Amino acid sequence: MKHKDIAIISLFIALLIALGFIPPLPVGFLPVPIVLQNLGVLLAAALLGPKRGTIVVALFFLLVLVGLPVLSSRSAGIAVFYGPSGGFLWGWLLAPAIYGLGDRLLGTHHGLWQRRILLWLSGAVLVDGLGALWLSIGLHMPLTSALMASLIFIPGDTLKTVLATLVAERVQHALPVHD
């Protein structure tokens, strides 16, 4: 790994930590709040590619595992990954890789809208879907109820995806950070 990669990965981990300082918005009927940290995951996926984007999330999770309260909820440790938010967190880890795979499958001939939709599918639909599945299993909720409850996150995650794509477009024109 090059020094440039280490610097960029460190910068994005710092971004995820900084976004964790923005207080979460509790949702009354779910034990999972609305957070802005997944905006950092979306940006890592869009700007860094599958390898470095996944490394960012994995190293961030390592900080959580060792007990640093860097999540918006200020919780840490292994229990976070098995609690109600666990499925959403595992989705964060998969999102950059799935986005990168889809980007690679689309090839160089895809346009801006295809990338936006791909980022939304991997960073919002996949993450919220895994979160719903996790809630269903962990809380013994019917899957349809968990999916319906997780729909509360789709509008906000859609806005975060739009913001991430706008920022990514601007940054990609200014700096070549993608693989």
Characterization of this structure:
69% of the residues lie in helices and 0% in strands. It is an all-alpha fold. The longest helix has 29 residues, at 37-65. It starts with a helix and ends in a 5-residue tail after the last helix.
Features:
single chain, 179 residues, mainly alpha, globular
Short overview:
By secondary structure, the protein is mostly helical. It is built from six helices and no strands.
List the helices and strands and how they pair.
Blueprint lengths: L2 H17 L17 H29 L20 H21 L5 H27 L4 H8 L3 H21 L5
Helix pairs in contact: 1-2, 2-3, 2-6, 3-4, 4-5, 4-6
Largest sheet composition: none
Low-confidence stretches: none
Compute the CA-based radius of gyration. 16 Å
Average the pLDDT over all residues and give the rounded result.
91
Total strand segments: 0
Distance between the termini: 12 Å
- Report the helical percentage: 55-70%
Q: Quick one: overall form? A: globular
* Structural class label: mainly alpha
Instruction: Return the string of H and E elements.
Output: HHHHHH
Strand coverage percent: under 5%
Helical region count? 6
